[in-house]
Specification:
heterodimer, A: about 425 residues, mainly alpha, globular, B: alpha/beta, Mannitol-specific EII, Chain A, CBS-domain, 2 domains, five-stranded mixed β-sheet, 13 helices, about 40% helix, elongated
Chain lengths: ~425, ~300
Amino acid sequence: MLLMIIALLVFIVTYLCIITEWVNKMLAALIGGFVIIVLGVVDQTIAFSAIDWNVIFFLIGMMLTISVMRETGMFMYIAIKTAKIAKGSPLKIMALMFMATALISAILGSVTTIMILIPIVLLISEELKITPVPFIITMVVASNMGGAATMIGDPPNILIASATKFTFVDFVLNLTPIILIIVAFSLGLIWLLYRGKMRVSNERRAKIMEYNDKNLITNHKLLWITLSVVGLMLLAFIFQKPLHLENATIAMAAGLILVFVGSRKKVETIILNDIDWITIFFFIGLFMIVEGLVHTGFIDLLAQGVISVTNGEPKTTSMVILWLSGIFSAFVDNIPFVAAMIPMIERIGEVITDPVQIKPLWWALSLGTCLGGNGTLVGASANIVAVGIANRNGYKISFMDYTKIGVLFALESVILSSLYIWIRY
Amino acid sequence: MLLASFLEPRNILFENRVLTKEQLYQILVDRLCSQYKLPICGSKLMELILQRDEEVSPAYSTGIAIPHIRMENFNDTLIAMAFLQNPLDYNGIKVSWVVLIITDKTSSKLYLNIVAALLKLSNDKEAVADLHNTGDGHSVIQYLKKKEVEVKKDVTIADIMVQKPIAVHPENTLRELINLMCVYRVAGMPVVDATGKYIGEVNVLNLLKVGIPDFVMMLDDLSFLASYEPLENLLEKQDLLLVNDIMATDEKTLSPETSIIEAVFLMFTNKKRYLSVVKEGKLVGLVTAMDILTKVIAV
């Protein structure tokens, strides 16, 4: 019991440190992870075996892949081309950028997408002499939605995939349809919110049309190699089961091939700059802390609590998980939350033994955590990163500025998700 | 070691005739050649000296010229000097003190130290006037002994740095900074307060960066953009922004005692081609990579 309280305290203190940004999140997670060991909650062997290497190497593999993909210039090309296709019309740019952001985010993850696209949209809005704030907010929303659509788009999905053995195709079949619906409704919401509000002179539009996208992709050989390897990677994800390959193996294979073929001479720079070691070690620490909760039986208690509330009825349980994780993710970093929820749903799975009935619980967790993050300014990393970039460039976006728009999209998408889960499963 | 120890009275001349550079060199060469057995002498030596003059001017802004030749298999260092009543013109620099140094190919360090000692001395206007007034070689040597002019064992930054470099104040506007940079044709300069205390540095890239917002720096590629207004808008900001707004305050600085090798090391590790020299918090000089090349390597 005492050990359980210690484990819970470590989890809560670590969480508070992350939310308040009092300490760097990686440092907080690693300290928490080793405090668990030092205080004897779990021994080192158990704590280390809780580290999900399938997740860690999947992340590293994807970071390597993305680093080479980025070097080809294909994402810049997509962004500039999008602005030109919209012919400089602000509402069209906003709608097309929304779709481009969601699409790229489904592959790269929300934070990387935001770091590539927000500077471009700042440039475009400056050329058009309109405020970039609505663009930034809607693109953040799109990045969190796009990330939720695939297994590789958002860390919660990667964690869920590794824990459940759901494949890439499972995610595409179960999550992509609802995300497409949500994106379609969101475009409607954008039209309602912003139509007729942004005026731009023809002279300004002409500037966007003069962007020369021809030079953005210079190394065509690298582009084709990258597209082929990424294509093979997606194929491997699709045929994961017959191939008997785990996510980490596929991602690392793609990443290593791309670095070897495309950027052999820059390996050290890639390892140093393009692999986000902060995130990697954050995950490692987190796995250890959550193991403390699992090992001491806290997660069991939590699972029993949820089951006693919902009577083990799958649909009700899904709704509870969806809304709980949606609301929770709107205010705090969703990764530790998902990391703790995964063993809990596994325990519930011991009560609800039918695999068909347990599935929607996982999708509810994924949709709730990914889409709830849109609710407030601090709900997801992409939000914080985007607002940080905007602030540095003289566009102050306050908590309320973001939240009054973000919460509309979060509500819209969680309501649609509820209907989807309720009807489909 | 004292500089006086390297000198001999008969090799110190006082010249009141109007001479050309070539005539003066001929006199100095004749002096040395008549007393010592040099591997190369006479017109061949003259040729070498003049050829070297063409490559690197031996004249310094303090009014001293130090032509110099390195010979193989000559294990000695010879110095001959002349104080001129009628200065020679070295491409605009008036030179009234010419020192010819002949050393072995391998003894560049000693040579550099002698040059450093001479340069330091030539900076001291009073001492140079005193030397001109002595009138004969013996008195010159006595004077240098009394003044304890030393040839150091090691060259330091103090010997090759530009003293009293151009600097700006933090409260100068960018327009004033741009003017200084253009007039003196320098790409960067130290920033000092009214008392001469070193505060930081500002360079042309800091200046150009004013016209480029942060988000442009975050783009992977800029090749799609042919023109960009904000860069042109730098001109509008030049009266509004101050040096204080754009200067860097965390740049590496040197002390006058820093060795040449450490200076090169720091230039390399900090990816900079010039460093400020600071003593007790005050800016005392500036040393550039070109100073090291021209004053240490290509001598």
